[in-house]
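Appendix C. Worked example: gibberellin 2beta-dioxygenase
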Amino acid sequence: MVVLTTPSLDQIPLLKSAKQIPHISYVPTIDLSKPEPALSIINACKSFGFFKVTHHGVDMELVERLEDGAREFFSLAQSKKEGWAAAKAPMGYGNKCIGLNGDMGWLEYLLFAIKNSAVDQVSMPGFEVSSRMFCSALNEYITAMRDLASQILQQIANGLQIQTEDVFSSLIENEESDQILRLNHYPPCPRLKSGVTGFGEHTDPQLISILRSNSVGGLQFALKDGRWVSAPPDPNSFFVIVGDSLQVLTNGRFKSVKHRVVAPEHSSRLSMIFFAGPPLSQRITPLPELMQEGEESMYREFTWGEYKKAAYKTRLADYRLGHFEKATYNQIMNRDCSLQ
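Step 2, the predicted output written as structure tokens:
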């Protein structure tokens, strides 16, 4: 059993009390093998900010190889894992501390920056032989996730009736696209308190994120009415999560969704998340093709690099887009009501 080191369990926050539903009664699910899934995807993005995709075409043997490699790494002695943390910071291995601004959770993780459509050759002390196969699985998985993300973003463009089908997908297919792969391991939490934070509530800053986990639950999403819902795990499917950048590109028609993870009690949770971002120099502003007559942008223009830098200076739960809005958040919500 993996036992995480300092900081101690007592320093890990409890989840904020909020109205909760034990299990969501309906997870918007999109079967990508069926014709014309675009409208269902649009409805899920507008109503929930997340959905699950099935029949996605991703080789599950590849997923299992990556999961096996991650499990092998996380089972190493803590000193060996910490050695790779020092060599790769701020990427690489992390333990409980999330980011640089004081957020903590009951997890350990591997974080990979994707350069030129791949991660650099992974060299991990004490993991040299397996790391070559692990790196191969990482890069195959990244290719599969980029293809899946591009397919979904093209369907979003179709559903929004934008003539240029690749208006979103081209942003993540560029060699300079800024993308990250995160592998999270949540060991069983000893002396479990009610609702120990595995990963605190947050939105993702990129266009979309694609999350897959093993069969251990813990993932929760915030609904528009403030309730938190637990999404049952499904190892054979992927959750797609709307990010802040897509919210801006659609001028608030889609909303990035807050999500979090509750620390597990009996079994380890292992998840892998692909964050699909554009090049650092990409201007993030509402698409002219979506703007109705007289509609104004809710956001000032900025680059992805500018937003990423600002996001990294905030706490997980902060509303990052507030600094980039032309109007207040309440005005945005009122505007949504008038469009419905």
